Amino acid sequence: MRIVYTKRETRISIENIKDMQLPQEFQAFERPTLIVVTDNVQAKLYRALGHEVSLVHTISTKADVLEGERVEIMTGSGDVRSGEPEDDRKEWSREKLYDQLSEELMRRLKAGEFESLAVCVPEEHMNELKESLHVDLLKIADAWVRKNLANDDLLDIVIHVQESE
Fold it and tell me: Whole-model pTM?
């Protein structure tokens, strides 16, 4: 995290760091590694080599907002009532995100941008993500972190990745 002091006020604000030089105590990334951090609606891609880690791409997708949508529900007595539709938009959004992520990772792999892959994904979505990734990506995935780290600091993400290798 970067601490920013403002002259007008004695307030401190904290920003997420997009690029970072890892402390020397940390293990260096010996091969170009892409660290993927994902949740339901976004995926952040960090490139790591040596002690340098940089944000290289963000994929974001949101569930479509369907305003005022209602459905007719038939009751057992034959009456028809109005109700809310089942909400599978989050699943659809996540599926779309994982498809876009797989395409982006394959494009970068073919371009030779990385040789190793580390993936941080919530445990409940691990299998769904694995099913959406190309087999060539699964072959080079050296680390799987079964946690939602999408809002964590970059240094914490690196710690989790290095502990899981």
Answer: 0.74
Which 3 state secondary structure label does DSSP give 105? helix
- pLDDT value for 83: 52
Q: Which residues pair with 35 in a beta bridge?
A: 46, 118
pLDDT band at 81 (very low <50, low <70, confident <90, very high): low
Q: What pLDDT does 78 receive?
A: 60
Question: What are the C-alpha distances in Å from 51 to residues 55, 112, 156?
Answer: 14, 19, 14
Mean of pLDDT values over 139-157: 95
Query: Rounded distance, CA 92 to CA 63, Å?
Result: 8
Rounded mean pLDDT of 43-48?
96
Residue 7 DSSP class: S
Q: All domains of the chain, ordered by start, with CATH?
A: 2-164 (3.30.420.60)
CA distances from 141 to 15, 68, 80, 89, 134 (A): 29, 43, 51, 29, 11
C-alpha 48/C-alpha 93 separation (Å) is 28
Asked whether the beta carbons of 53 and 36 are under 8 A apart, the reply is no
Query: By CB neighbour count within 10 A (0-12 exposed, 13-18 middle, 19+ buried), where does 35 fall?
Result: buried
